[in-house]
Fold these 2 entries.
Entry 1:
Amino acid sequence: MKRQMHLGLFLLGTGSHTGGWRHPGATRSFQDIDTVLEIARAAEDAKFDLIFMGDNLNADPKGHPSFTLRLEPLTLLAAVAVATKKIGLGATVSTTFSDPFTVARAFASLDHISHGRAAWNAVTTANASASVNFGIDHPDHARRYERAGEFVDVVRGLWDCWDDDAIVADAATGLYIDPQKLHPLNHEGTFFKVRGPINIGRAPQGQPVLLQAGGSEAGIALAARTADVVFSVVQDFDEACVAYAQVKDSLPRYGRRPDDVTVIPGVMPVVGRTDREAFDKLAVLQSYTAGGSGINVLSERFGIDLSAYDLDGPVPELPLSDHYHSFTRVLLSKARRENMTLRDLYHLTVAARGHWVLCGSAESVADTLQHWFENGAADGFNIMPATHPHGFDDFTQMVVPILQERGLFRRDYEGDTLRDHLGLARPPVARTATQRKAS
Ligand SMILES: Cc1cc2nc3c(=O)[nH]c(=O)nc-3n(C[C@H](O)[C@H](O)[C@H](O)COP(=O)(O)O)c2cc1C
């Protein structure tokens, strides 16, 4: 069968564009369950692989509205799970500000509730502002990833504590659980001591899907070792090919094959019936942040307060901060390549919060996505609509049918679980070295 694109929806209730909520007819809340359900159903009608809910752990009233005010993702996705049937449900939970037992339970629960559609985006939480809400210091970048590696291993180990046939529930014999098929984890590491087992039977997907979005060396290494889907941050084709190859080329080191990981760059499509119409739409969106109201979004991405800089001056020398290596590197290299002023960089960053903006007629957007997909830059895309509902409708109603027509994207779901959509097998139970020694 012809290779198919994978499409995710990066869900922000007020749209990805920082000023998109100001657009006439745009949704203005990310706290309204009915808005979220409408968007989720639209994504499912368009046969997307998954909806992805990011998360952050602090409130910045000058930030992007959907980042400042949002429902807790797992609570929200449990509601979305019962209102949808097929679409995958991904949520962010931090490895810096959570504990593995709770995370393992939460995603195993979501996988049961959704009948096999849960995915966990394991993030290290780049933004240090969260630490004041947890009473702990924000560890440095390297330490965050060290902890993340152990965290993910513990979660996965907990998901495998129960054999698939451990719950017998035999009324005749009175045996409910076969104790031979239950395997404590007995993990003792640098960061965590977790005995297990988890108090929930093996998830429908065996292992819920793992998402990863870090673009630093440590982020890519973690993704190559553990992730099923990688979100990449890119601004142009050549860069996307490099990011794609970095992930795929790292896989053999961990005994994995290229098809084991789906790489989907983030993109904010702005689509019109003609190129002209699309560029006019983008110009209107950009007018909402023209006065510098999105400067905090720029500062957040670079991990440095940029409000004191002259927007019409050159882009200052900015160090790779301890925050997001990927965004800083990608945005700065584009700014240098294209000789941007700080205002140009500002406009680029606040549009899609540092992600790629693709603007044009439906045909030209489909052509570009196809080109990337067929030439080593992507296995699909993480779609970040500028606004809801219109920005997303433009994509699903104008671009998706072209992709389907060209045989590049499914017309219907062929399976029921997120693993089915991604073409990933349900993994058998794996035993850790400690468990093997104990048995
Ligand atoms: C598509 C995408 C989604 C992300 N979602 C979140 C998120 O929900 N919460 C968060 O704290 N970080 C999020 N991040 C940030 C990354 O997970 C990572 O922490 C950050 O990029 C810094 O890692 P790096 O230095 O390895 O790039 C996201 C990044 C991307 C590209």
Entry 2:
Amino acid sequence: MHQSRKITDDVYYVGGSDRRISRFENVFPVPDGIAYNSYLVLDEKTVLLDTVDLSVSRVFLENIEHLLNGRKLDYVIINHMECDHSCTLEELVLRYPDIQFIGNAKTFTFMKQFFKFPVDGHTIEVKEGSTLTTGKHTFSFHMAPMVHWPEVMMTYDTTEKIMFTSDAFGTFGALNGNIFVDELEDRILLLPEARRYYTNIVGKYGAQVQAVLKKIAPLDIRYICALHGPVWNNQEDIAWILDKYNKWSSYTPETEDIVIFYGSIYGNTENAVNVLSVKLAQLGVKNIKMYDVAETDISYLIAEAFRAKVLVFASSSYNAGVFDKMEYLLLDLKAHNIQNRSVMLIENGSWAPSAAKAMNEIISGMKNINLLNHNLSIKSQLNPEQEEQIDATAQVLKQALQTS
Ligand SMILES: Cc1cc2nc3c(=O)[nH]c(=O)nc-3n(C[C@H](O)[C@H](O)[C@H](O)COP(=O)(O)O)c2cc1C
Ligand SMILES: [Fe+2]
Ligand SMILES: [Fe+2]
């Protein structure tokens, strides 16, 4: 049985959701699963926009067959050649051998690398600003290099005002019948997984995302159809998610909050930041978040660092360096190009505390970090005589939160 849904008069959702997968890209935990979206346009010509992961290929093929109702598939627009959207191409080619692939030069290079089926003779190469008319619909193509991969492009349906955005504007999480954002109780429910998805997968390429956002800004976009997550189908929600993307991709803190990341072997460092959090709360600081870096998956930590304005990294010393999970977090944040944050370092060590220096070495390679005074070096456990120091630390953090 097909499971497709109508988006506009002749545009249909034909993707599917995988709730069995534990880690997307074999890396990111997806406790709520993931959706692989694909869209079919039934015009004078039939057009498919991207395909799906093999895990949902059966429902996808059934959806297409049902909607085509005996017609042939004329075109497949390939906005992204990554396997989660292209694996099913091979099966599609077997079923619809006359199909024409629409992509850019890089798309076809990748296609030939990934697949053995004949690509030459089946291609229509497009460039920035190229258009394709399929009857009622005219599509324009907009290159979006590194908005995940180098071949990525976005396709705009000028007729129905739909922007097919590739991975951009996607979220983790399966779709459960409701494919539109306004079929959910509140768009805010999508935010943590949209943020975790963006920051971990595309976060590194903020400059490229900014360039694409500027490029598509003049277009009248009524729908955003991404390759994961729900369809953004009303103006208010679209403006809201565009604003989030603008913040994330410019590395602007999204909220005026503090997040404390700690790495602690026996709990003494953890205890110190618990004391600090209470001091902060007493100073009126709200919405404090704390994470044990050895406990919480790093993808959630990356997302939280992109969200907040002030970041505290507190860690045990470890073999003349820093606790390894903390080192991994900092290196990953650096790899994701995190910028424009106020940062406080706290260390603990029993014989030669080395954590602050090791953390600072990584952080000094990040752009535009306001390193707050770190005078809090703990010897094994917080000493009652250090209370004044903890109070001062809390004051410095509060000030950093209030500084624009
Ligand atoms: C494997 C290991 C390596 C350590 N290396 C150092 C070190 O190089 N320098 C140091 O001062 N303390 C070192 N320590 C001691 C811890 O940093 C210290 O006891 C810890 O910070 C106490 O805080 P915690 O309870 O939060 O882990 C090490 C501890 C362990 C278990
Ligand atoms: Fe991708
Ligand atoms: Fe994807």
